[in-house]
Fold this protein.
Amino acid sequence: MTAGPLVLLVEDEVPLRRFLRTTLGAHGFRLVEASSVAEAELALGAQSPELILLDLGLPDGDGVDLTRRIREWSAVPILVLSARGREDHKVEALDAGADDYLTKPFGVEELLARLRVALRHASASRAPDAAVLELDGLRIDVARRRVTLRGAEVHLTPIEYRLLTTLAKHLGRVVTQQQLLTEVWGHAHAHHTHYLRVYMAALRRKIEDDPARPKLLRTEQGVGYRLRDPREG
Amino acid sequence: MTAGPLVLLVEDEVPLRRFLRTTLGAHGFRLVEASSVAEAELALGAQSPELILLDLGLPDGDGVDLTRRIREWSAVPILVLSARGREDHKVEALDAGADDYLTKPFGVEELLARLRVALRHASASRAPDAAVLELDGLRIDVARRRVTLRGAEVHLTPIEYRLLTTLAKHLGRVVTQQQLLTEVWGHAHAHHTHYLRVYMAALRRKIEDDPARPKLLRTEQGVGYRLRDPREG
DNA sequence: CCCGCGCGTCAAGAATGCGTAAAGCGCCCC
DNA sequence: GGGGCGCTTTACGCATTCTTGACGCGCGGG
């Protein structure tokens, strides 16, 4: 008996949780349970599940927001369960970073199959995203959402932070404007290239010694931007 | 103007295909269409789509089998569309290697959102391809979009870069002027052969020791150009 | 021998893209 | 309800890049 994947189940309705517990358990999954957003975040801090089964409509907060927050630092598969079948809800959750969306009531076999798909993806794309990145004097601590420059904390707005971490994720490589826009602002803003200029300027003011002659945040004219890896040229 | 992802649409019903064509087209996707399993396999041989939209219930074969065959050699995301909502069908398709399963009728926005999820997965799991080409002192790092000459970075404009990489793609072989023009400038400029001379000159100035006597960027009179492979003639 | 053609070179103007400042607006917290 | 903060939007100047036209050279055919 090998221990199956660890699943975080976030669900407030007791009967459904009970049901899923036995069903998933019977199929070899190990379970951590949470019945609210707060508990879920706690559990995420303590364990690192290989998959999250997330019910929307929790008592203490929005599951979509939780999804977004998780996506800032983790790529763990998130399967959303919801009583709401409305299309815009689905789109919102999926765009927030969820990997699948099941409308209640759903069949157990389908749930299991979609779970397998999600785990397949996860094992295929296991990318070692470093929790802390240090270049020159700049330090990006993704786990703590902290950026420091030669020890001093740099305050970044949410967008600035996401812009920086998106670039960091592709350290040394060019990230196209489209990519940045969709990853930071969402696909709906993929053509607002001006945002990039405004926020790049802001970021450079905060982390570059000479914002007019950037060492880290390099422009690739007509293509995108790149966070330069100081280890190479 | 960036060209969107290439999608292979496998669907035999003409009205639905028509509808998806316009819808996806309007959202920036490029489309290849097939109306049967045979056509789909043909198209897969000719092109390499970034995503497959596959209707089950094709006239000449089983879509699930097709999925399995594709999975033997490719990880391209497959979204299944089906009129059949039965759970065992879904499980079968998903376990065969499909990444998602939508039951008709489905909403366009949901389809687009799930498409985005699939593409997100694909780009996340794309292996860091070490596509580096080195000839003499010239180094072309496609992943980083960087060109260096004996260690020193060479700055290329977007067109120069595309011209060089297009030639590199056919290393050692002649690339006709038509081919270069359509691949770099697009179909509409296939007759502006003068562009080639201007940009070849610029490229040679940047990467040749003696631009007047080019070692790498050879002219093939009346035909096109060739990036010489120093390992051979 | 001269002309036409293809290629290479140069340079100027047009078009595009980028950086910067600053103002308006909504939101939340005090 | 006022102030601070962050996001969006507008305006403008500057830099880079693209396009276009002019010209010279060499070669081969008429």
Notes: Chain B touches chain A at residues 2, 75, 87-88, 90-91, 94-95, 98-100, 107, 109-110, 112-114, 116-117, 121, 124-125, 143-145, 148, 151-153, 157-158 (CB under 8 Å). The radius of gyration of chain B is 22 Å. Chain B has a mean pLDDT of 93.
